[in-house]
Amino acid sequence: MQVFYWVGQGTQRDGKTFHTAFALNSVTYQIGDSVFLYPEEESCPHYVGRIVSAFVDEHSGHADPHCIEVKWYERRVNLETQTKGIVESEREVFELEDTDINPIGCISSKIYIVRAQHYDEALMKMQGTQQPVPALL
């Protein structure tokens, strides 16, 4: 069972109520946070995205009106072979222009993505943080 609630007051716009933060299973999420989202098939890796907006849409027709707009990342291993990245790594991701609306309940966990030109730069940015080993962008 998931425990969810909005943090703070929402603002009305375009028939929806937008929020800047929410809590899901004792973790607070804010606009701009990067997250893992559950895939449709359990055997597939989690999707990677960044929360662009969070809102209630009572008129969406979906069973769950609590939604997030997500800007997607794609793993390097799923891109064309000529795409150059930092490292040949399953943790390396590239930010896409694509966005999509998903129920908040699709979130698996918060993640930390480091923007870097090379792996050593990513490691330097991680020094002194309590974050797990990052996905790379």
UniProtKB/TrEMBL annotation:
GO terms for molecular function: chromatin binding. This is BAH domain-containing protein. Residues 27-137 form the BAH domain. It comes from the Eukaryota. InterPro entries: BAH_dom (IPR001025), BAH_sf (IPR043151).
